[in-house]
Amino acid sequence: MATTTIGFTAIAVLLTGYLVLESRDFGIGALLPVLGRGDRERRLMADAAGPVWDGNEFWLVAAAAAMLTAFPHWYASFLSGFYPLLFPLLAALVARTAALARRRGGDGRRARAWDWCTAAASAAAAFLWGAVLANLVRGVPLDADFERTGSAWGLLNGYALLGGLTTLLLCCSCGAAFLHLTTGGGTAERARALARRLGAAAALPALAFLLWTQLSYGDGATLTLTIIAAAALLAAPALDRADRARAALAARAAAIGLASAVLFCALWPDLLPSTGDAANSLTRENAAATGKTLGITAWAALAALPLLLAHQAWTYRVLRSRPRAA
Fold first, then answer.
1. Which of 11, 53, 54, 88 would disulfide-bridge 49, Cβ 3.0–4.6 Å?
2. How many CB atoms lie within 10 A of CB 128?
C-alpha cells in the first residue's frame, strides 16, 4: 500500500473517530436548555458526557497534525480556503468549552445563560462540521497556486447546507439517545421521546445527502458503504420502537461513522477538488510531503491509532458510571 494511501487513511480514521465520539456531546450540548427542567437536571445532563468530552478533541488535533506533516499543501489550502467556515467552527468549540466550564460555578439566570451559550455553540459546531466535509468532497474553485478563488458565499451551497443539517440532526439524535440511557426520571423519559422523533427526522435529510453524494461523487466502493449507512439510519428508529435503546444508539453512531467513510472514499484520490480548472485540484501526488516524511508520518499515525483506541476504551470503562436524576 502506498504511503499516501496510508497517510490519508489515518487522517480519515482520526476525523471519523472524532465525529463519532463527539456527536453525542454536540447533541447533549444542543439539547441542554431544551430537555432540562431546572438547574439540577441540566447539570446532570452536562455531567452525562463526563470528563471524556474534551479528550475527544485529541482525535481532531491528531488528524490536523497528520494532515500538516503528510500533506502540507492540503493543510495550507484547506485552512486558507475554508476559513469562513473553520473560523466560526473554532469559535464555537472554544465557546462551548468556556460555557460548560463557567456554568459549573454559576446558578440561576447566569447558569441558564451559559446553558443557552452551550446549546448555540454545540449546534453551530455540529452544523459547520457537516458543511466543511461536504465542501471538501464537492470542491472549491482553486487557482494555479491552490488557493480558493471566488466569494466565500460559495461555501454555503445546497450540498453543504444539507450536509450541515444532516450532522446537526444526527448529533441531536445521538445526544437524546445517550441521555435516555444515562439519566433517569423525567429527563430520561423526555430524552426517549425526543430521540424517537429526532431519529425519524434525521433519516430523511441524511438519506438525501447520501444519495446526492453517491450520484455526484461516488463509485462502486462508496455505493456499498452508502447502502450500509442507509440501513443503519433506518434501523435506529425501528430499534427505538422496539425499546432497544443501546442498539439504537449504536446504529446512530454507526450511521455517522459510515457516512463519514462515504465522504472520504468519495474524495479519494483527490484531496481538494477544483470546481473550476480540474488541473488545479489537489491530489495525493501534488499535495504530499517528501517520501521520507510521508512514510514516517503514515506509519507513526497507524502505530498511534491502537494506543488511542485502547486509551479511549479504558477511559470510557472507568467513567461508565453516571449520576442519575431522582
1. 53
2. 25
pLDDT, one tens digit per residue, over 268-286 is: 889 999 988 888 889 888 8
> Which run of H or of E encompasses 282?
strand 282-283
Which residues in the chain come in under a pLDDT of 50? 323-326
Cell triple for 123: 449546534
Taking alpha carbons only, the member of 264, 303, 301, 272 closest to residue 70 is 301
SS (H, E, C) 132-146: HHHHHHHCECECCCC
| 56 DSSP assignment | G
The amino acid at residue 315 is T
Is residue 303 exposed (0-12), middle (13-18) or buried (19+ Cβ within 10 Å)?
Answer: exposed
d(CA 189, CA 202): 20
Distances (CA, A) of 234 to 15, 107, 174: 24, 41, 14
Q: What is the DSSP string of 63-98?
A: HHHHHHHH-HHHHHHHHHHSHHHHHHHHHHHHHHHH
Strand-pair partners of 48: none
Q: Please tell me the predicted confidence (pLDDT) of residue 99.
A: 84
pLDDT value, residue 182 = 82
pLDDT number for residue 263? 96
* Gyration radius from the chain CA atoms: 20
**pLDDT tens string 104-124:** 655 667 778 888 898 999 999
Q: Contact at 8 Å (CB) between 195 and 187? A: no
Evaluate whether 31 touches 315 at the Cβ level (below 8 Å): no
pLDDT at 326 (0 to 100): 40
| Contacts (Cβ under 8 Å, ≥6 apart) of 245 | 177, 180, 181, 192, 239
Q: Is 148 helix (H, G, I), strand (E, B) or coil?
A: strand
State residue 288 phi and psi, 5-degree precision: -80, 155
